[in-house]
Amino acid sequence: MTSQIFLVGIGGFIGSVCRFLLSGVVHRLMPVSEFPLGTLAVNVTGCLLIGVVNGLAETRQIMGPEMRLFFMIGLLGGFTTFSTFGYETLALIRDAEVLRAMANVALHMFCGLTAVWLGDALGRVG
Question: What's the pTM?
Fold first, then answer.
């Protein structure tokens, strides 16, 4: 268990640093944008990478459980949890659970935005 936590932690550290760097590069390339392009770039890149890693892991069996922990939960989880959201939604669709996939998307969007609004309101109290 300790080695698993270490793998996830190291991967998370690397992923977070990569998120910071990529987002910064995008913002430097497009400094006038009123749209959060850095976050979009990170989320789309994370989704692409988790798809590639999963595809390689499942079709070529080139990754053991420890490497999957490092890459998928640690590195990509630190890079963006949006990639996990995309992966889990795709898995529901592949399992013919389309209604659950749609509910997953709707609940994440509604509950996430509501939680941000509520958190912001709570932070402003006082």
Answer: 0.79
Q: Are 37 and 26 in contact (CB under 8 A)?
A: yes
Taking all residues of the chain, what is their mean pLDDT, rounded to a whole number? 91
How far apart CA 69 and CA 51 sit, in angstroms, is: 15
Query: What six digits make up the tokens of 31?
Result: 């400094």
End-to-end Cα spacing for the chain? 42
The token pair that represents 94 in the structure block:
């592949």
User: What three-state secondary structure class fits 61?
Assistant: coil
Domain range annotation of the chain: 2-80
The helix/strand count (H/E) of the chain reads as 6, 0
Question: Is-contact 74 85, C-beta < 8 A?
Answer: no
Q: Which of 73, 61, 77, 80 is nearest to 22 (CA)?
A: 80
Least Cα distance to 82 among 58, 109, 118 occurs for 109
